[in-house]
C-alpha cells in the first residue's frame, strides 16, 4: 500500500486563483475504519477536477465530506474561505449542487417535476423568475425533453441518471459535485456529460467529478486527484499524475499510456 | 463570483444537439386543471353528503330545511324554517356528529400523507404502524385512572403524548440508513399494535364498567354521541396541524429524493422530520381522542388521490383533506343508516374496506420494488 510518494504539482504559473473549495488534513473514520486520512484537496474556479482511484479508495467519502454530508473526524472543509459548518443549508444549496450515485425518486414524480425540484433553493428570491428557462435549458442539455412527462420510476437507469443530472444543473450552483455521473450512460451520453461540465468549468464554474474511466478524465479534466486507501497519492494535471508506473501501482493492473495523436491527452490502455 | 443568481444565468450553448426533442410536453397546465376539477368534485360531494347525512335518520329532514337551518344560524333569514324539533335534532345530534366526522377524516388523511412523505414509503399509515393504537392507549389510560389535570383536554393530551412517543419510536425503529424498509415498518407496526392491544385489554380489565364500555367503543371506533365541546377541543388541533402541513408541502416533495438529496437542496432534514412527526401525533391524537381507532383512512385516501394527481404534496394534501373528510362523512352516513335502528361502529366499516386495500397495496409495492425493500 505504501506505493508512491505523494506528488503535488506546483501551483499554476498563471495568476493564483483563490480556492473555491478547500480541504486540509481531512480524516473520516466510520466504525473504526479509516476511510479518509490526511487528505488535502483544493478546487478552483474554472477548474474541472476529477477524483480517481480504485474501488474503495475513498472517492465517494471524499465527495461526501466536501459536500458537508459526512462529518470529518479530523481536518475541515471550507467553501469560499468559510468553514462548511458556518453556511446555512439554503445558502449552500445556492452555491453547490451534488449528484449522488443513487438517483431513486421514492414517489412517481415526473421528470419535469424532479428537474423543477432543483430550483427549490431559489424559492422566494429574484432568481425564481429564471426557473422556467433554467429548467428547460437543463432538460435540453441532458437530452431528456422527450421524457418530461414520464414518471421517474418508469425510466431506465441511464435516463434516470440524466434526469438527476438535469436537476443538479437546474439548481444554478457554480460548484458542481458529481459522483460517477457517467456510470449508467452510453458512449454518447458519457461524452455529452463531460463536454457539458467542461463547458461549465470553462465559463468559470468549479466542477468536481468522480469517474472511473481514466482516459475520459484525462481528456476533459484540468486537474486530477488520485486516491488510494483513503489517502491522496498524487494530484496535478492528468499528464503529470497519470503515468503508467503510478497507475500500475495504485490499481494493481499494468497499463500503457499513449499520447493521443491529435489532442496530446494521455490515453490509458490496460496491458492486454 | 459566488453570487449564484448571476452565475446561474448562462447562455444556453448546448453541446448536445437536440435531435429527438419534440416540443416538450407541457404537463403543468392539464395537471392544474385536473386538480381543480378534483377539488371541485370533492367539495360538491362533501356538501351533498352533508345535506343527505343531516337529513337522514329516524327523523327525516328535507335538504331545504337543513340549508335553511344553517343559513338562519348564520344570520340569514331565508329558506324554509326547520321545525323546532328538527332544529334541535340537527344542532344537538346530527351537526356535531357530521362535523366531528369531517374533522377526523381530514386529520387522518393528512397524517397518512405526511407519514408517507417522511418515511418515503407509501405504506406508512397511523393505524398500520401502531400510532393510532399508541394514542388510544394514552387516552384509555387517562380515562381509566380518571386523569383530569387538564380538564376537558386531559384525554386528548394523554392521547397526544402517547401518540408522539409511538410515532418517534416507530420512526427510529424502522429506519436504517436513511430509508424505511417495508418489512421493518410493517413488523414494527405489528409489534406495537400487539403491545397496545394487550395494554388496552389490561385497562379494560382494570376499569370500572363505564370506562370499560368507553374503551371497547374506541377499539371499534365510533362517532356516536359527538358533542360540540369535543369539537371545540379537536378543531384547533386539527387546524394547527393542517396549517403546518401545508406550509411544509413543497419541502416534503424534496424528501422523495432521499435525505441527502433533500439536504443538498437546502432542507434541514432533521428539523423537518421531527416537525412532521409532531404534527402527525397532533392530528392522530385529535382523531383518536373522542372517536377511537379508525383505521386505513390515512392509507386509502392519499393513495387514491396520488393516483389522480401525482405525488406533488401541495395538491395531494388539499385533495387528501377533502377526500378524507368526504370518506368519513360518507362512512358515518352508512354506519348510521345501513342497519335500521342500529349504529354500526365506523372503524369497523373503514377496516372492512381498508384491510383488503392494504393487502392489495402491499402486494403491488412488493412487485414494483422487486422485493420487500
TrEMBL record, chain A:
One of its GO terms (molecular function) is ATP binding. Residues 21-254 form the ABC transporter domain. Keywords: ATP-binding, Nucleotide-binding, Translocase, Transport. The keyword Metal-binding does not apply. This is Heme ABC transporter ATP-binding protein. It comes from Microterricola pindariensis. CDD domains: ABC_Iron-Siderophores_B12_Hemin. The keyword Translocase applies. It comes from the Bacteria. Pfam families: ABC_tran (PF00005).
Amino acid at each position: 500500500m505504501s506505493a508512491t510518494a505523494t506528488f503535488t504539482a506546483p501551483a499554476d504559473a498563471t495568476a493564483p486563483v483563490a480556492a473555491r473549495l478547500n480541504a486540509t488534513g481531512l480524516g473520516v473514520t466510520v466504525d473504526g475504519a479509516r476511510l479518509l486520512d490526511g487528505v488535502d484537496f483544493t478546487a478552483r474556479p474554472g477548474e474541472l477536477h476529477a477524483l480517481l482511484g480504485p474501488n474503495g479508495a475513498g472517492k465517494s467519502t471524499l465527495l461526501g465530506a466536501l459536500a458537508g454530508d459526512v462529518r470529518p473526524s479530523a481536518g475541515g472543509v471550507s467553501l469560499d474561505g468559510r468553514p462548511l459548518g458556518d453556511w446555512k443549508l439554503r445558502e449552500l444549496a445556492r452555491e453547490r449542487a451534488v449528484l449522488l450515485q443513487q438517483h431513486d425518486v421514492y414517489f412517481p414524480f415526473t421528470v419535469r417535476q424532479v428537474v423543477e425540484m432543483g430550483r427549490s433553493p431559489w424559492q422566494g428570491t429574484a432568481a425564481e423568475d429564471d426557473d422556467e428557462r433554467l429548467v428547460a435549458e437543463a432538460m435540453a442539455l441532458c437530452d431528456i425533453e422527450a421524457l418530461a412527462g414520464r414518471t421517474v420510476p418508469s425510466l431506465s437507469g441511464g435516463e434516470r441518471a440524466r434526469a438527476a443530472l438535469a436537476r443538479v444543473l437546474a439548481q444554478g450552483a457554480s460548484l458542481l459535485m458529481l459522483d460517477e455521473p457517467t456510470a449508467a450512460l452510453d458512449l454518447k451520453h458519457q461524452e455529452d456529460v463531460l463536454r457539458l461540465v467542461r463547458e461549465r468549468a470553462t465559463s468559470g464554474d468549479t466542477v468536481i467529478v468522480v469517474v472511473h474511466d481514466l482516459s475520459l478524465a484525462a481528456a476533459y479534466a484540468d486537474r486530477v486527484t488520485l486516491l488510494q486507501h483513503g489517502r491522496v497519492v498524487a494530484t496535478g494535471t492528468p499528464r503529470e499524475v497519470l503515468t503508467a508506473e503510478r497507475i500500475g501501482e495504485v490499481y494493481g493492473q499494468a497499463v500503457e499510456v499513449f499520447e493521443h495523436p491529435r489532442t496530446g491527452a494521455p490515453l490509458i490502455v490496460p496491458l492486454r | 463570483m459566488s453570487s449564484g443568481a448571476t452565475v446561474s444565468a448562462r447562455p444556453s450553448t448546448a453541446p448536445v444537439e437536440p435531435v429527438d426533442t419534440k416540443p416538450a410536453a407541457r404537463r403543468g397546465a392539464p395537471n392544474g386543471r385536473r386538480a381543480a376539477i378534483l377539488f371541485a368534485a370533492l367539495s360538491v360531494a362533501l356538501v351533498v353528503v352533508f345535506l343527505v347525512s343531516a337529513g337522514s335518520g329516524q327523523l327525516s329532514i328535507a335538504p331545504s330545511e337543513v340549508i335553511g337551518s344553517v343559513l338562519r344560524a348564520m344570520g340569514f333569514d331565508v329558506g324554509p324554517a326547520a321545525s323546532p324539533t328538527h332544529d334541535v335534532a340537527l344542532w344537538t345530534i346530527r351537526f356535531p356528529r357530521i362535523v366531528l366526522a369531517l374533522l377526523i377524516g381530514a386529520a387522518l388523511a393528512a397524517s397518512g400523507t405526511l407519514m408517507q412523505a417522511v418515511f418515503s414509503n407509501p405504506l406508512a399509515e397511523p393505524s398500520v404502524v401502531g400510532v393510532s393504537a399508541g394514542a388510544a392507549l394514552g387516552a384509555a389510560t387517562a380515562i381509566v385512572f380518571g386523569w383530569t389535570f387538564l380538564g376537558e383536554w386531559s384525554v386528548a393530551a394523554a392521547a397526544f403524548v402517547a401518540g408522539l412517543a409511538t410515532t418517534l419510536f416507530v420512526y427510529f425503529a424502522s429506519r436504517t440508513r436513511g430509508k424505511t424498509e417495508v418489512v421493518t415498518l410493517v413488523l414494527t407496526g405489528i409489534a406495537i399494535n400487539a403491545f397496545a392491544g394487550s395494554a388496552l385489554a389490561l385497562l379494560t380489565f382494570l376499569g370500572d364498567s363505564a370506562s370499560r364500555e368507553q374503551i371497547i367503543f374506541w377499539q371499534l371506533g365510533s362517532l356516536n354521541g359527538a358533542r360540540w365541546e369535543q369539537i371545540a377541543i379537536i378543531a384547533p388541533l386539527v387546524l394547527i396541524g393542517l396549517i403546518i402541513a401545508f406550509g411544509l408541502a413543497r419541502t416534503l416533495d424534496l424528501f422523495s429524493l432521499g435525505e441527502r438529496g433533500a439536504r443538498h437542496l437546502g432542507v434541514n432534514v432533521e428539523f423537518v422530520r421531527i416537525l412532521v412527526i409532531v404534527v402527525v401525533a397532533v392530528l392522530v391524537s385529535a382523531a383518536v381522542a373522542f372517536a377511537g381507532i379508525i383505521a386505513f383512512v390515512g392509507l386509502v385516501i392519499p393513495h387514491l388521490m396520488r393516483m389522480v394527481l401525482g405525488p406533488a404534496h401541495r395538491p395531494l394534501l388539499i385533495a387528501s383533506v377533502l377526500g378524507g373528510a368526504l370518506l368519513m362523512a360518507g362512512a358515518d352516513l352508512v354506519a348510521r343508516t345501513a342497519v335500521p335502528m342500529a349504529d354500526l361502529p365506523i372503524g369497523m366499516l373503514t377496516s372492512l374496506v381498508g384491510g383488503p386495500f392494504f393487502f392489495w397495496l402491499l402486494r403491488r409495492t412488493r412487485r414494483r420494488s422487486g422485493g420487500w425493500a
